[in-house]
Amino acid sequence: MGTLGGISVIFDLDGTLVDSEPNYYEAGRRTLTEYGVADFTWADHEAYVGISTRETVADWKRRYGLRAPVEELLAVKNRHYLELAGSSSRAYPEMRRFVELLAGEGVPMAVASGSSPAAIAAILARTGLDAHLRTVVSADEVARGKPAPDVFLEAARRLGAEPARCVVLEDAAPGAAAAYAAGMRCVAIPYVAAQADAPEFAAADLLVRGGQEEFTARAAHDWLVRTARDR
Question: What is the DSSP letter of 149?
Answer without folding.
Answer: S
